[in-house]
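Title: Prediction job returns without error message
Component: structure pipeline
Severity: low
Priority: P3
Assignee: unassigned

Description:
Job completed but the reporter wants confirmation the result is attached to the right record. Sequence as submitted:
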Amino acid sequence: MAQRFFHIAVLGAIAATVGLLASPIGTLKAQSLSLDPQRPVIDVPRETRRPKQAPRRPAKPRRTAPHRIETPPTRQATREAPRRAAQPRASALVPTASQMGDTGGAGSIDSILRRELAPPGDAQPRRRRTPPQLGPTDSGRPLEVQRIPPLAGDVWRGVTLETFESLVRQAARRPRSRAVRMLWLRLLASDAPPPRGAASAAAFEATRLVALYRLGAFGEIVGRHDAARPERRNEVLKLFTAQARIALGDGAQACSEASSLIRDRGEVPAWRQRAFVEISVYCALRADDRRRAKLMVELARDRRVDAPLTFSIVDDLSLGRTPAVPRSTRLTLVPGKLLVLAGRRPDAKFLDAATPALLLGLANDPDIDVGPRLAAIEAAARRGIASGAQLRSVYLDVAQRRRGAGGSAAARAQRLANITRSVKTGDGGRALADARQLLREAQRAGIRPVVAAALGPDILRLREGRSTARDAETAIEILLASGALDRAVGWAIFAASARTAGPGVPATQHWELPIDVARGMAGSPFGSARVVGGLRAAERAAIAGAFSASDLHRLVTVLDALGYQVSIEMWEAANRRAQPTDGPLPPTGVLSRLGAAADARQPGLTALLAIAALGPGGASEANLITLGDALRALRRVGLGEIAHALAFEQVYRIWPRRGGR
């Protein structure tokens, strides 16, 4: 009897288990997600449609390199998605449930899109590398994510939003001068009240983010995001931060943070819909999910989002074709990275068309080939976008993992790695000799100041001695570019004493003048008694013909504008040569407005007009009249350190060196 009751209990338990398993299946059937056939949102090839049966686990696609998009075999028959009739433009990428007349249930359009099109926040690539650090600082944080020191005071007094936006459009795209770029960044980093005419602080913040992004200040964007309280991180800031993280080489973090954007896509403004789509497509392809990328593209087309290059790349990949490089004059971050990951090697035209975000995005990606990475970081250095710390990080990373890559850029990277090794082993003479040769090579490549700054951490570890005396001038140049002014003075004093002790040591006293100009750039007192000797040494070099006619006139103009006492002999040496007339003149009225803004003590407007007057090349390319007026105006409104930064860039470039500049 007990055995009979046991059998009945077992049968009852089995029946209950089957009932429990069948219940969720029935629920899933009842809640099956299907689109309205009268108004299809997407219609893509067969492999991207939702299967009616239980979905099978897709086969693992082969990959030739981490994060590299592999082109599938060409299919003979591919159905084109039918084009619908033109529909009214939507203000958002995806309509909300209320706009669609849906209640938001499990089978609603809104829930379908949330499930299908959300960027894969938790999906990580199969092989993830830690993004390279961009160089340690005294605080231990990466250099690029530190906040830029803002200009203090009521910066935007006298500035209207219309004037600000006009100057941003004209002058904030591609400044070749690092000093002009830094002036822009210090202006944009200010937390002063917005200019007159701004609808709100949030509206001005959006304009500020656009300017920072165009300037390639991705660390500043990430810093603003991380410093903001969570409730103040709106969708525009999140979008720009995701793009900035991609440019800094941290695609995994970018995609993780972007996964929350799908929940608030209705708040993404229409002018940022393209960025929203591109980030979503990038994250999908980064996670090897082509189906999600194709769905996103078709939905974006349905909503009239304009991202033709991204759309064509995804279409080509779906059809088994290698995407073609467009002939456009501007190549942005995500489309450019997708082209490279799909197998397109960046050439000179590719890099010329690349935006700052794309250049740094290629340079900071350790999974991209050595050649494109080096070409991208050096192109960014020539444009004034990349810092010495960023260049150093890429050089050392490439030298460590290089596998037979050739070319002059790879040779420069290897030479920097050799210098680092020589410093560690205590061979200072060898390190400085290699550094002098590297600077000569960098001069031919047009990136000498950035390479000099990249060598700073190595030369800072050297000590003056007999083996390093012959290349003391090289050490001074590198330390000056790195901002280590006290150490540069120490090397100049050491070289002077070593020169009196024996022959073969070059004269370095004339370097005390650019060191003094740099002191003013750092906000320290300048024009000290010690600089008199450096100024006289520079005058002797000028009289002896160490400067060209154009460079001598520029030097006299800069020193006079900064308040140095230029001797009559130096003026006469300049006047004996023809005064250059090169350099573009600013538009009519800019110089008069610049003088009026300086007289009215309006620092922000003065700085903006100085940028417009000097042009993207800064002091090195400006007309002499413009150069003097801009430096004097900046000093009158209390921006003397900015004037010294602009002047130092000019002086450093033209300064006579052993073996030429």
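Comment from assignee: result matches the submitted record. The chain has a mean pLDDT of 75.
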